[in-house]
Amino acid sequence: MDVKEEIACHCESDGMLILIVVLALSLVAGILLALIGAYVVILAIVFFDLIMVKFLLDYSTRPLQFFGLLGLAGTGAGFVIGAFLVAQKLLFNIDVIAAHGPLLLLATVLFLSGIQFISMGLLGEISSRTYYESQNKPIYALREVKSHRKEDPAEARSSGSPER
To answer: Tell me, what DSSP letter sits at residue 46?
Structure first.
C-alpha cells in the first residue's frame, strides 16, 4: 500500500469513527434531554394540580372573588392606560396609533379581558349557587353562632344557662 492510500484509508476510518461517536453522543444527549424534559413536564403537571386543588378548596364557593379580582385589575389597568393615551391625544395632539400602537392594543386587550374575567366570575358564582341549592347543601358551614343581643340578667338566671 502506498503512503497516500494508507492516509486516505486511515482518514476514512477516523471519519467514520468520529461520525459514530457524534451520533452516539447525540443519542445520549437526546435521551438525557427527553428524561429531563419528562421530569420538567411531570413537575409542571404536579404544580398545576396543586394550584387547582388550592383553587378548588379556597374559591369553589366564591369564584367571583377570584375572577372578579383579576378582572378588576385588568379592567383598571386597561382603563388607566387608555386614559393616558386619550390624554396624550387631546392635550398634545399626538398620533396615538403611530406613537403608542402596542400600548393602545395592550389597553384594549386588558380592558376586554378584565370584563371577561368579571363575567366568568359571575357565571361561576351562579353555577356554584345553583349546584349547592339543587343538592340542598349549605354553601357555608358555620363553626359557631354568636348572638349580639343584650339579655336581661334576670332572664339569663331563670333559664339556667346563658345562650351565646
So the answer is: H
